[in-house]
Amino acid sequence: MEILQVPFVQGFIRMCQDGWEQNWHERNGGNLSYRIKPEEVEAVRPYFGAEQPWQPIGTSVPGLAGEYFMVTGSGKFFRNASIDPADTTCILEVDEAGEEYRIWWGLENGGRPTSELPSHLMNHEVKKAVSGGKHRVIYHAHPANTIALTFVLPLKDEVFTRELWEMATECPVVFPDGIGVVDWMVPGGRAIAVKTSRLMKEYDVAIWAHHGMFCSGETFDLTFGLMHTVEKAAEILVKVLSMAPQKRQTITPQNFRDLAVDFQVTLPEKFLYEK
Ligand code: 2HA
Ligand code: ZN
Prior knowledge:
By secondary structure, the chain is an alpha+beta fold. It is 40% helix and 16% strand.
C-alpha cells in the first residue's frame, strides 16, 4: 500500500481533478481541505516525514486541537494535483492550543498550506461543532456563474437563496438551510475567515462577492455535489437574466412549502417572502 492508494487521499485528489475539469480553478484558484478521521491518520502515518517546525495558523481554532487535515498548497494549481499530489497537497496537524500547525507529509518541494487556511480551519471548527463531527470537507472554488451573479443581485442571503432555489426544484432539497453571502473583502486573512465561519453556523454554502464560493459537507461527493448544484442553478439564472428582464413563471412560495412537506425538509420562511 502506498499513501496515494489510501481511499481518503484518492477521494481528495479526485475532487481536485473534478473541480479543475469544471473550470472552477484557473491558475492557482481555489483550495480544498479534509478533516482526517483518527483511523485514517493511522493509515497514512507510516508515510510521514521528519518532524517539522510548528507554524502560526493566523487565527485560533481550539475546537480543532490535535486534528489532522489534508489541504491543498498555497500557489499550487488544481490542474497538477492528480499528477503530483506530493508537490501540490499536504497533511498537517493542528497543535493542542489550536494556534499552530505542522506539516507531516507533502509539499515536498517546499511551500505552505493554502492561503485560505484561516477560513478553512475556522469553517471546520464551526461545522464540526454544529454537525456533531459529521462535516469533514471544506471546498473553495471560483465558479464563473455564481461570481457573475454577485455583480447583479443584492448581496443578501435571502435573495441569493431564493433566486437560486427557483432555478431548479432540487435546490431547496439540496441546500434547504440556504446560502450566506459575504460582501467583498480582502481574501486570505482572519477577518474574512471570521465573517465566513459565522455564516457557516447556519449555512453549508457561503458566497464571497466578486470572488467565489465555499461549501461544507460530510463527504467529498456531497461537498462537490453541493457546489455543482449551486453553480448549475447560477448558470440557469444567468441564462434566464440574459434572455428576459423578468421571469414569465417560476416556483412560488406556496410551491416551496408544498415541496417541503413531501420531501420532509424545513425551508425557513425568511426565504419565502412575497416579491
Ligand atoms: O488562490 O482561491 O482565495 C487561491 C484562492 C484564494
Ligand atoms: Zn479564491
